[in-house]
Specification:
Radius of gyration: 35 Å
Order of helices and strands: HEEEHEHEEHEHEHEHEEEH
Shape: globular
CATH superfamily of one domain: Glycoside hydrolase/deacetylase
Number of strands: 12
CATH architecture of one domain: Alpha-Beta Barrel
CATH class of one domain: Alpha Beta
Largest sheet: 8 strands, parallel
Helix content: 40-55%
Mean pLDDT: 88
Number of helices: 8
Structural class: alpha/beta
Length: 279
Amino acid sequence: MHFRGFKHFVGFGLLTLLIVGLAGCGSGTSNSKAASSTVSSKKVTRKATKPKKSPYADWKTVKTVKLPILMYHSISSGNALKVPATEFKAEMAYLKQQHYRTLTTTEAVYALSHHRIPQQKIVWVTLDDSYTDNKTAAWPILKANHQHATINFITGFATHPNHLSLADAKKMAASGVIDFQSHTVRHLDLNELSYADQLKELTESKRWLDQNLHQKTPVICYPAGRANAATSRAAKKAGYKYALSTAPGIATSETDPYNLTRQRVTPGMSLETFAGLLK
C-alpha cells in the first residue's frame, strides 16, 4: 500500500473508532437515566402509623363517680371472713348477667381521679390477705367469666403456708385477671404503730410489690381497716394514691382518697342482699 492510501486507511479507522465511542457514551448515558428512572419508580412508600387509641377514649365524663368496692377475704368456708366458692361463683355470675364491668386497679384509680367511667355499670372486686384459695377457688371463676379482681397482698406472708407466694402472684398477674396491691408487710394494726413504723410498713410493702411485679403500686389496703390521721399521711408519703378501708358504703370520687369505703360480702348472703351492696 502506498503512502497516500495508508493515510486514508488510518484516517477512516480513527473516524470509525470515534463514532463508535460517541455512540457508546450516548448509550451509557441513556442506560444510566433508565436505571435512575427505575430506581426512582421503586421508592418505598411508608404507611403512616396511626396513634394508639387511649383505653379510656370511650369513657364518659361524669360529675361524681360512684364505685361499689366489694370486699372479700378467703374463698372457702368456716367463719365470717370466708365466702364459699359456690356463693362467690353465683355472685360473679350475677355481676356478669347484670353487665357490670369489674375494674382493674388502674381503671378504678383512673375513674376516681378523672371523673370518667365506661358506658356500662362498674364494680371493683377486692380480696384481702392473699390466701391460697384466692388462686385455687376465686381465680378459675374469674377467668371463666372474663372478670377481674384485685388481691391485697401481705408481702411478709409470701412464704407462709395458706398464703400466696411470689411465684403465685407473678403467674396470676401475668394472666391479666388479677392485679396485686399492698396490704402492708406484717398485717399489723397500723393505728397502734408510731408514724415511723407505719411509714416503714407501707413503704417496704410497696417497694416489694413494685420491684417483684414490675409495677407502680398505687393502692394500700389498711389491715382490718384500722388507721388514724398519721396513717393517711404515711400512705401519701409512701407514694400511694388511694387507700382502702373497711368502713361500709359506696366509694365516690368525692370520698377521701385515703379512706375509700367498701362493701363487705359475707357468707350466706342472698343474691338480693348482694345486689343491694351495689346501689
